[in-house]
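Support case: zinc ion complex. Customer-provided input:
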Amino acid sequence: MTATIGVDIGGTSVRAGVVDGYGTVLDTARAPTPTGEAALEEAIASVVGTLCERHKISAVGLAVAGFVAKDRRSVMFAPHLAWRHAPVADRIADDIGLPVVLEHDANAALLAEYRFGAARGAKVAVLVAIGTGIGGALLLGGTPFRGAYGVAPELGHLTLVPGGRPCSCGKSGCWERYCSGTALSASAVELLARHPGRSTVLAREASGDSRAITGRKVAAAARDGDPLAQLAMADLASWLGEGLALIADVYDPEIVVIAGGVSESAPLFLDDARDHYKAAITGAGYRPLARIRTAQLGDDAGLVGAATLAADYQR
Ligand SMILES: [Zn+2]
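Agent response - structure generated as follows:
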């Protein structure tokens, strides 16, 4: 059996991996993400070309952080990439001479978790990827649910707090403004203004510029026992629980996989989030609850999922 290549195309880097039928990543190549459309496609063709020299490859899957058209041939919109209504799959297929299929990165990651990881075999599975924002995916019987036009489910911009923190999407009070790496940083800055002197670690970080308090630094401080960072983490946990309860009310999933960079700090918030989720769900105590687990494939999930789709696509 020949292998396929999965490419995870993010705002900062293009990561490609050769993947076998068991979801094992055999080899990788990466390049920084260029800003222009042509340069981006050249960078993808180049990392794929490097891997094709070393392995026999039958097809390529691209996982894109953006809206992928329902036929999976073009990218409609990607906030951090150059593509706007771009027929990416055909252009890259022409360039590299192999079949190419596109997928939304969260769908690809959930598909990988369904085949090989935390959501194995779940009939209704949801992925919540918590990083800078929130990425979401819903898998029904192993197939991504895309909605009528390919953009579902956009979980990060559900309004949880009417009139709340402003969001880059133009609305305010979106879930990801309260439950993300960016949210951890915003909560820590707010808490520090309200309780000056409560956290010497974060106050030192913020001296001169509060933007120095990144979500990653808040998580590290919480891990070290800093009380203010732990309050910020508790706030994230409560909003995660609230959001998960909404998702469970709408989808009634068997499993919710928590992925993304923030999930690496799951021991600091996940039990707390589960308690909020159990308390906030409709009919609590009288219905089976979705299991909430952290992702197993880590950073590789997107490219493994894309490679798996490519293997299915060529058949
Ligand atoms: Zn928003």
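Residues 47 and 53 are 10 Å apart (CA to CA).

Case will auto-close in a few days if no follow-up is received.
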